[in-house]
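WARN retry 2 of 3 for item q-0093 after timeout on previous attempt; input resubmitted unchanged.
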Amino acid sequence: MKADYNKKETRRFCEAKATDKAFQSRIDYKNWVPKSMIIKALAATAVSIILLVVSEYFTTGKLHTFCFIFFSLLMLASAVCSVMFISWYQAFSYKGRRKLSKHIIETEGVRLTSAAAAVRLP
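OK item q-0093 returned
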């Protein structure tokens, strides 16, 4: 009975913190996916496209086939990575549309404070 009461009180305290404007304004979690990673993947895509176009004009024979396959696969891989990193960046944005990191932080915070309250009980 007492454990249930402490869990409810802990949950109310955490919810009050989450709705408090002053508390929310102090929270500034950075995005978990760095922008430099997205920029590098986009740059790799652009460079591979440029190299693919250049190799089309300046190579012939087997070298042309090799360059076409290699740069096409490189472009495809870097484009897939770019899309994946952008979707991760949007998903792990604390103040963005999907707010996955906010959900993780708040649910784990409630679990940790609940666990800490349960440990302190005699």
